[in-house]
From TrEMBL:
Organism the protein comes from: Streptomyces telluris
Taxonomic path: Bacteria, Bacillati, Actinomycetota, Actinomycetes, Kitasatosporales
Name the record gives this protein: Cytochrome P450
Any GO molecular function: iron ion binding
Pfam family, one: p450
Coiled coil (residue ranges): none
Length: 428
C-alpha cells in the first residue's frame, strides 16, 4: 500500500513546552478519553503515533509487528528525527534498545546475570553505605536562624548515587568512575544539524567515545569478574562486534543511571507535595517497597518509550499507521488510566498494586528493574530518615523540569530540612 501524504494525516498534538513538561497528565487524560492512539509532534519537528491507554500500551509493547531497529524508520521520520550523526550512530546506537530478535535475545542474555534480583539484593548493604556517605558529605547552606539547612538533592544526591551504584554493579573501576562526566548523558537527546549547539554536542559524543575506548582497554588489560569485563571477553570471543560492545557500554553508562536519578526526583517531588504520605513513609519504612511501586506508577521517569516501527502499513488500535512511522507508548499516560487504576491521580500508599508499566513490558522490559527498585528504596529511605522536616525550599511552580523528550524529572530539587542533634553532615 502507498503511504498517505502528510496532508492526509490528522493534525499532530504538540508534546513540548514548559507547561506540558511540568504537568502532562491533563493532556494525557484528554487523549485517553478520545482514543488509544494519536499523532503527536515533538520539538524537533518529528511526528509519531502515541499510544496512551494501559491495555493498548501493553498490547503495543508486546506486538511482534513493531521493531526497534532504526533501519525500519521511513524517509519521512528520518528527515525530521534528530538521531545521532554518523559515524557515532552506527557505533553507539546498536545496543539492546535498538535491536530485534534474534540479536536482541543474544545481547540481552549477556547482561541478565549482572542485574539478577538475588545478586543485586545481596548488594543492598553496600548501596546503603553509599547513600549514607553522600548524606554525610552533603554540602548545605545553613539558615539565618541556625535552625534549618537547605540543599539541592539533585546535585548532592540524586545525580551521584545511581552512578556510584552502577559502577559497583557493572565493575567500573574507581579510577575510571571518577573520570566519568555527567554531561555525557546529554548525548541521548540529539541536537539537530542546524542547531547552534551542534558542535558542542558532537564534542561530547567524541569525548564519550574516547572514554568508552579507555574502559574497553582497561578491562582487557586488567579483567575482573564484573559485567564490563564479561562484555569485553564476549567481544574477543566473537559474540559481539566492536560497535555492539561500545553501544552496550554506552547504554549501561547513560541509560543505566539517568532514569534512576530522574525517578528519585519525581518520587521526592510527589512525597513533598503530600507531607502526610512522607511522614507515614518515614515512620513506617516497611512500606518502602510498595511505596516505590506506587510512586513509579504515579510519575514515571520513563515518560515515553523509544521509537518502534511497523515493517508495512497496518492497523494499530483502529488507526492505519504507515510503515516506518514512529510509534511511541506513553508509560505515564498508561499508568494513570482510570480503567486500570481507580483514582489514578492520587498517591495511595495502600493501593492494591497491579502491574504498572514504568519499566515497560514484553521483550524490552528493563533488565535493570530489580536494581532500580532497590536503589529507589535505599535512596528514599535514606533521605527521609536522615533529613528531618524535609520540605521544598522553592515554590512548586519554580521547579525546573527537564525538557527531555522521553524522560521526566527535575534538573534541581532545592529542599530545606531541620538540623538534627549530632547530625554528621558536612557544613562546607
Amino acid at each position: 500500500m502507498s503511504q498517505p501524504e502528510p496532508s492526509e494525516l490528522p493534525d499532530p498534538v504538540p508534546l513540548y513546552g514548559p507547561e506540558y513538561k511540568r504537568d502532562p497528565y491533563p493532556l494525557y487524560a484528554r487523549m485517553r478519553e478520545a482514543g488509544p492512539i494519536h499523532r503527536v509532534l515533538f520539538p524537533s519537528g518529528v511526528t509519531a503515533w502515541l499510544v496512551t491507554g494501559h491495555e493498548a500500551a501493553q498490547k503495543t509493547l508486546a506486538d511482534p509487528r513493531l521493531g526497534k531497529n532504526h533501519d525500519r524508520g521511513n524517509d519521512r521520520w528520518r528527515a525530521r528525527a534528530s538521531i545521532m550523526p554518523e559515524p557515532q550512530h552506527s557505533q553507539l546506537q546498536v545496543h539492546l534498545l535498538h535491536q530485534d530478535p534474534p540479536k536482541h535475545t543474544a545481547m540481552r542474555r549477556l547482561v541478565t546475570d549482572a542485574f539478577a534480583p538475588r545478586r543485586v539484593e545481596g548488594m543492598r548493604a553496600r548501596f546503603q553505605e553509599m547513600a549514607d556517605a553522600l548524606v554525610d558529605a552533603m554540602p548545605v547552606d545553613g539558615g539565618a536562624d541556625g535552625g534549618a539547612d537547605s540543599a539541592d538533592l539533585v546535585q548532592c544526591f540524586a545525580a551521584r548515587f545511581p552512578f556510584q551504584v552502577l559502577a559497583e554493579v557493572i565493575g567500573l573501576p574507581p579510577h575510571l568512575a571518577r573520570r566519568f562526566r555527567r554531561e555525557w548523558g546529554k548525548v541521548v537527546a540529539p541536537v539537530g544539524p542546524t542547531d547552534p549547539g551542534r558542535p558542542a554536542y558532537e564534542a561530547l559524543l567524541r569525548e564519550l567515545q574516547g572514554y568508552i575506548a579507555e574502559v574497553v582497554a582497561d578491562r582487557r588489560e586488567a579483567p575482573g569478574d564484573g559485567l564490563l569485563s564479561r562484555l569485553v571477553a564476549a567481544r574477543d570471543a566473537g559474540e559481539l562486534t566492536p560497535e555492539e560492545l561500545d553501544s552496550m557500554i554506552f547504554q549501561l553508562l547513560v541509560a543505566g543511571q539517568e532514569p534512576v536519578t530522574n525517578q528519585i526526583t519525581t518520587a521526592m517531588v510527589n512525597l513533598l507535595r503530600h507531607p502526610e504520605a512522607l511522614a507515614r513513609l518515614r515512620d513506617e519504612p516497611e512500606l518502602l517497597p510498595a511505596a516505590v511501586e506506587e510512586l513509579m506508577r504515579l510519575d514515571s521517569a520513563f515518560e515515553l518509550t523509544t521509537w518502534r516501527f511497523l515493517a508495512e502499513d497496518a492497523d494499530l488500535h483502529g488507526t492505519r499507521v504507515p510503515a516506518g512511522d514512529s510509534v511511541i507508548v506513553s508509560l505515564c499516560a498508561a499508568n494513570r488510566d482510570p480503567e486500570r487504576f481507580p483514582d489514578p491521580d492520587t498517591l495511595d500508599l495502600d493501593r492494591a498494586q497491579g502491574p504498572h508499566l514504568a519499566f515497560g513490558h514484553g521483550i524490552h522490559f528493563c533488565p535493570g528493574a530489580a536494581l532500580a527498585r532497590i536503589e529507589l528504596q535505599v535512596a528514599l529511605g535514606t533521605l527521609l530518615a536522615r533529613l528531618p522536616g524535609l520540605r521544598l525550599a522553592v515554590p512548586d511552580g519554580e521547579l525546573p523540569w527537564i525538557p527531555a523528550v522521553l524522560g521526566r524529572g527535575t534538573s534541581a530539587l532545592p529542599v530545606s530540612f531541620d538540623r538534627a542533634a549530632g547530625c554528621p553532615m558536612g557544613r562546607g
